[in-house]
Design goal:
heterodimer; A: about 300 residues; alpha+beta; Thrombin, subunit H; six-stranded antiparallel barrel; six-stranded antiparallel beta sheet; 4 helices; extended; B: about 180 residues; mainly alpha; two-stranded antiparallel sheet; 8 helices; 2 strands; about 5% strand
């Protein structure tokens, strides 16, 4: 009897302890969730080491996955080799003509730069930091990637990340050996773009779908098929980076991204020094001598060079 | 000499740490994106397997904290909204723990329970994601990712069985 009573009491104590543990854990989880509401990013200091650690493991884990993907792509490509060869031969002919045009235009730009005494920025700086996208998360909550290069290699927050096809995203957080890239398709991605044909401006706004939408076009001249490039108006990204092509979905214009053709593996980071606000970049004070300076520079009695 | 309660505490801690280690591995797998033709899937719900298998061996109190830490680590490593996975895994663990502890049987019955867990997890993340981001998360992508993890369950089931057989712990398998 006494034993059963003891056992019941112990069981009650145990369930009370379990209830308390559940309530405490749930309350803590809820607090963490509330801290992260409205796009706030608390625990920023903890994110970089977590991403760095995960990046190292994922870079190893992703190797067989990428290998299998590349193998299946190669097998698929093998069957269309003849057709692909013909298409490439036509493309080479077309590109030879384009190359001639580019050389001629470069000469014109160089001539104009000389006579106007200016520097027309048409492409991003030449510096490139090569890296591998070790993990690409294209989930319903976030569209980002981890790359295996960080501050140690010169990657910093805000840098544009490119593939051979076009802009892939921009660095939002840089750890020592890894960095988090926010893809153009992410819900919180906004970049200033323009139509290469008409120079009409818009904001490319990600919405976690494969094709971000073109917002704030106002009465700009946009047509289906227009090539989209970065406008540089945001002062964050350089001007002229290829983004995608315009297509319509209902009454919305969207961008078919150039990078959305194959799984992204190798990328490069293009460091860019944005244009600074005058308040953040004050001009050096003019070198006007102060009365004290003139007094100090004045020859002392008896030091005159005069004979 | 370690007394019984001290030994139990040590064992509880050891099991919790093993769960944490396995959870970190599963989180890393959840960050992988696998492209099959034009379809791209991510195994973001795979850490649910830990919540499914682990309660059979561990005590509730430390495990609920392990669920919270695993969720928090996934939040930090995935770069998504903070607290989404933390709250999902903690709530899921509190709700499902008694059911999972009682869940026994062969592959098909455990597969069904696991499928329900993954779908419950997807529902919770949809609700919390909606609250956190202010827009509806893409149901198709979520369904695809959940389906991929459910389809992977037999592999996890047999891998676990293989590990126990190799390590001579058949008694655990007979219990489950």
């Amino acid at each position: 009897m006494a034993g059963r009573l003891y056992s019941t009491r112990q069981q009650k104590r145990r369930s009370a302890l379990l209830r308390r543990a559940s309530v405490l854990a749930l309350a803590l989880a809820l607090i963490i969730f509330l801290l992260g509401l409205n796009g706030r990013r608390p625990l920023g200091a903890a994110r970089a080491p977590a991403e760095s650690g995960a990046g190292r493991i994922v870079s190893v884990l992703s190797m067989p996955v990428r290998g299998a993907e590349n193998l299946s792509r190669s097998v698929g490509a093998h069957f269309g080799t003849v057709a692909e060869n013909e298409r490439l031969a036509a493309e080479v002919t077309r590109l030879k003509q384009v190359e001639g045009q580019i050389l001629s235009l470069r000469e014109q730009v160089s001539y104009l730069e000389t006579i106007l005494n200016t520097d027309i920025e048409t492409v991003a700086k030449e510096k490139r930091i090569a890296a591998r996208a070790v993990s690409e998360v294209r989930g319903p909550f976030v569209q980002s990637a981890l790359i295996n290069a960080g501050a140690a290699k010169g990657v910093s927050s805000g840098d544009a990340v490119m593939t051979v096809n076009g802009i892939y995203g921009r660095v939002v957080r840089s750890g020592n050996s890894s960095a988090r890239v926010l893809l153009l398709t992410d819900l919180s991605s906004r970049i200033a773009v323009m139509s290469q044909r008409s120079r009409g401006r818009a904001i490319l706004s990600g919405d976690n779908t494969v094709a971000p939408s073109l917002e704030f076009r106002r009465d700009g001249d946009w047509q289906i098929g227009d090539r989209i490039v970065t406008s540089g108006d945001d002062g964050i990204l350089p001007r002229g980076l290829p983004v995608g092509e315009v297509f319509a979905e209902g009454n919305k214009l969207r961008a078919k991204l150039f990078t959305d053709v194959a799984p992204v593996d190798w990328i490069w980071v293009a460091p860019f020094a944005p244009v600074q606000r005058p308040e953040d970049d004050p001009a050096p004070a003019p070198d006007v001598p102060t009365p004290d300076d003139s007094a100090a520079d004045a020859p002392l009695p008896g030091e005159s060079d005069a004979p | 000499m370690i007394d019984e309660s001290g030994g139990n505490a040590l064992q509880t801690l050891s099991i919790a740490l093993q769960a944490l280690g396995l959870g970190v591995m599963l989180i890393c797998i959840s960050l992988l994106n696998i492209s099959v033709g034009a379809v791209s899937v991510s195994l973001m719900y795979i850490p649910v397997a830990l919540l499914f298998f682990w309660p059979r061996y561990s005590k509730f109190a430390p495990s609920v904290w392990v669920a919270l830490i695993i969720g928090l680590l996934q939040d930090l490593a995935s770069g998504g909204p903070l607290g989404l996975w933390t709250l999902t895994y903690t709530a899921l663990f509190v709700i499902i723990d008694p059911t999972v502890r009682r869940s026994r049987g062969g592959l098909s019955s455990q597969w069904s329970v696991f499928a329900v867990l993954v779908l419950a997890s997807a529902t919770l993340t949809w609700i919390f994601g909606r609250l956190s981001m202010g827009v509806r998360p893409n149901l198709t992508v979520m369904g695809l990712n959940a389906g991929a993890v459910i389809a992977l369950f037999p592999a996890l089931f047999f891998l676990r069985r293989f590990i126990y057989q190799v390590s001579g712990r058949d008694d655990v398998l007979r219990g489950s």
